[in-house]
From TrEMBL:
This is Uncharacterized protein. GO terms for biological process: methylation. Keywords: Methyltransferase, S-adenosyl-L-methionine, Transferase. The lineage of its organism: Bacteria, Bacillati, Bacillota, Bacilli, Bacillales. InterPro entries: Cation-dep_OMT (IPR050362), SAM-dependent_MTases_sf (IPR029063), SAM_O-MeTrfase (IPR002935). CDD domains: AdoMet_MTases (cd02440). Pfam families: Methyltransf_3. GO terms for molecular function: O-methyltransferase activity; S-adenosylmethionine-dependent methyltransferase activity. SUPFAM superfamilies: S-adenosyl-L-methionine-dependent methyltransferases.
Length: 212
């Protein structure tokens, strides 16, 4: 058994939302990897995060997992694709969490964050990867000091370390994600780049002037 298979088997647990997972697989909806989800939920436990802002709902899989951490968790989640938003709302109804989740159908780049009823304990950035920096700059001011900012897919399935990329779009995407990662790494903020799933970045928002 490979070491990563061993870790995976130790981490594996019954799926809480099998029909949502099955839908994602059938319709090829990209969702967070189980180990990245697990690490994120663990951090929610450790920090007591209850008010969450998510950029990138898709069909609501990660939001459902965040809502499952405690009955006190509330999620505001933004999605620009109408079909995904509708499907997410249906799943929120199925799992009877509609009262704790505010699904917003909008392009997050067109939203005034002041309108979102912050501040938030945690921000999850999981939308168009080339916009990580934009989302970070615009939405992290609405995370409380001591709160968390989590960014998924910071490795782009290995693309971030590829030298020769033929496709212009992929090269551009790599450059943007890499530039954002490097900016965070150089910022002095308390951050961890974790090799779980497709790479998970966890940043602790600290008071201005305090470094890691
Ligand atoms: C990786 S999926 C999100 C997966 C979800 N967080 C999960 O794990 O279940 C990314 C989603 O972000 C949405 N998206 C991309 N750019 C966006 C934007 N500018 N504003 C809102 N949603 C966006 C896409 O339509 C897609 O549904």
């Amino acid at each position: 058994m490979e070491i990563f298979e061993y870790i995976e088997s130790m981490n594996s647990r019954p799926e809480l939302f099998p029909d949502v997972l099955a839908y994602a697989r059938e319709h090829k909806v990209p969702i967070m990897d189980p180990d990245a989800l697990q690490v994120m939920k663990h951090h929610m436990h450790l920090t007591g995060a209850e008010r969450i802002l998510e950029i990138g709902t898709a069909i609501g899989y990660s939001a459902l997992h965040m809502l499952s951490v405690s009955d006190d968790v509330e999620v505001v989640t933004i999605e620009k694709d109408a079909d995904s938003h509708r499907t997410a709302k249906a799943f929120f109804g199925t799992y009877e969490v509609a009262g704790r989740v505010d699904p917003i159908l909008r392009d997050a780049k067109e939203i005034d964050p002041e309108m979102l009823r912050g501040p938030f304990d945690m921000l999850l950035i999981d939308a168009s990867k080339g916009n990580n920096e934009y989302f970070f700059e615009n939405f992290s001011p609405f995370v409380k000091d001591g709160g968390l900012i989590i960014v998924d897919n910071i490795l782009l399935r290995g693309l971030v370390v590829e030298e020769e990329i033929q496709s212009r779009n992929r090269r551009r995407m790599k450059e943007k994600v890499d530039a954002f990662n490097k900016k965070i790494a150089a910022s002095g903020m308390l951050s961890s780049f974790l090799p779980v799933g497709d790479g998970l970045l966890i940043i602790s928002k600290q008071e201005e002037g305090k470094n890691a």
